[in-house]
Amino acid sequence: MADTPESDRDRTVGIDLGTTLTKLAHIDQSGRPVIIPNAEGELLTPSIVAFTKTGVLVGRDARRESLSNPARAVLNIKRQMGNPKWRFKVDGETYTPESISALILRKVIQDAEVHIGPIRRAVITVPAYFDDARRKATEDAGGIAGIDVLDIVNEPTASALAYGLGEAGEDGVILVYDLGGGTFDVTVIEKRGNEFITLATDGDVELGGKDWDERLVNFLADRFRNEFDADPREDPQALAYLYVSAEEAKKTLSRRDWARVPVSYRGHWGNYDISRDAFESITEDLLAVTQLTTEMVLEEAGITWAGVRRVIPTGGSTRMPVVQRLLERMSGKDVRTEVPVDESVAHGAAIHAAVCLLGSGRRIHELSAEAAERLGKIKTADVAAHALGLIIKDVRTLQYRNDVLIPKNSRLPVSVTKTYQTAVAGQQKVILQVVQGDAPAPEANIIIGAAEVTDLPAGRPAGSLVKVTYSYDRKGRIHLKAEDQQTGTAITTEITRESGLKADQVAEEARRLSLKSIE
Ligand code: AMP
Question: pTM surpassing 0.70?
């Protein structure tokens, strides 16, 4: 798509690429976000990819296939984004997390194109807490899927946009509590007129609805093993079925105060009743983690509950009544959800996509003049979820430590310039270790990689000055720039990342995947 010439018919969409479900939305003529159904007629597409002998399945069909053939299916790929070690091998081919995510993107895009015409650009959402490697992997997944990634936007910012649009007049501090399928974050956002300014954010990329499912799986499997002396967790297929039953039961427990779960394995059948109270008690510690994070983020934002105007729950897992109760207990406020909790992120992504396009001076042909004017006024500002640091050798202790250059929660975009002296005469290269995090010990942070400043002018004495600028762009991505202090000329820099695909690998993956059809 991205290689073909622009056309008035090209559409821009917002995509919530979730751990368990993916949603795609666009803006209608009146500027309202609308989720576009997939080929199965569903608004939510399971983020599951399955490889059959004849092709690739994504979504509902992949979920069915994953039950009969778990070894040929990939679930929860979002948890692996940015992980350089994760690879999926099937039928002699190897897939990266980026390419699996690209297949999910391709599916929702190709299904939406039937309704709205060719899609050229997209905004993709990520948890606010995603680090540079995970953000880059998400952007690359879009590239592999053949779309221009207009922006990467934080999920809570997207949610706030979706709510804020409905009530343009209501200013104040918004707390977004986002508990999805595989990630959790809390973000404090200030809405001032048409501006949405993030004040603080934190979270856990390893916590989500899946952990609640896992507790139920273990609860059920333990009871089954006690009764029949056989453990369904031993067999991947039985385990896959058990996960589906556990998730179903969890959802039932959001509506009713008990659920009955059938479990079968090795010819035995068990039926287990679980009450909502029992479910809440076996998952109490998971909820407590979210409470601690919420209180910590408020503190980081320098705000008390009295200063919070509204609390927005988002993410499918906030449908659990215990979450609503927690939020109401903590905040002392009514927790409203006028936008469905699992649709608000995609809605906000579509709004943000329109805001980005209008902001760059482009017209959106399908949008009415009134809606374009309204959307054109919206502004968002995010913060860095992680500090940016450099590993230096402390001259006093001679130990390596993390020198924080950009503190956590700095408003994006943000740059910091440091001046370095060359150590020896004729030095032409400086290598710096860049990390994300604010822990003093280097290994307690996320290692981004080696930043190399090469081609320093030849023949300079020791002590020559080099200016290096480190920055986070609006998307929370890291950039590096260097210049020779004496002449002001730019010096080549490159970050050799510990993880992530190179530009030519993205192009090659895009070519390879374009040959695959999603059935
Ligand atoms: P999301 O990533 O926002 O799409 O959220 C997906 C997660 O929400 C999955 O873990 C689902 O099991 C969970 N979920 C969806 N509906 C419900 C419900 N009614 N009760 C509890 N959890 C739910």
Answer: yes
Q: Which CATH class is domain 6-207+289-381?
A: alpha beta
Q: Which structure tokens are listed for 429? A: 């290269």
Choose the residue to mutate in 63, 252, 317, 319 for probing ligand 1, maximizing ligand atoms within 8 Å of C-beta. Answer: 317
| Residue 20 Cβ < 6 Å to ligand 1 | yes
One CATH from 3.20.20.140, 3.90.640.10, 3.30.450.150, 3.40.50.2300 for 209-282: 3.90.640.10
DSSP string, 86-135: --EEETTEEE-HHHHHHHHHHHHHHHHHHHH--EEEEEEEE-TT--HHHH
Rounded CA Rg of the chain: 24
The answer to whether domain 209-282 and domain 388-499 are alike in fold is no
Q: From the CB of 23, is ligand 1 less than 6 Å away?
A: no
Residue of minimum CA distance from atom 8 in ligand 1: 316
The residue nearest atom 20 of ligand 1, judged by CA position, is 251
Indicate which atom in ligand 1 lies nearest the CA of residue 210: 10
Q: For the domain made up of 388-499, give the CATH fold.
A: Substrate Binding Domain Of DNAk; Chain A, domain 1 (2.60.34)
Q: What is the pLDDT of residues 462-488, one digit of tens each?
A: 888 888 899 999 888 899 888 888 888
13-54 residue pLDDT tens: 999 999 999 999 999 999 999 999 999 999 999 999 999 988
Q: Within 28-75, where are the H helices?
A: 60-68
Cα–ligand 1 centroid distance for 3 (angstroms): 37
d(CA 56, CA 311): 40
Helix (H, G, I), strand (E, B) or coil at 218: helix
Pick the atom of ligand 1 nearest to 255's CA. Answer: 19
- C-alpha 129/C-alpha 125 separation (Å) is 11
For the chain, domain boundaries: 6-207+289-381, 209-282, 388-499
CA 199 / ligand 1 centre spacing (Å): 27
Instruction: Supply the mean pLDDT for the chain.
Output: 91
Ligand 1, closest atom to CA 179? 3
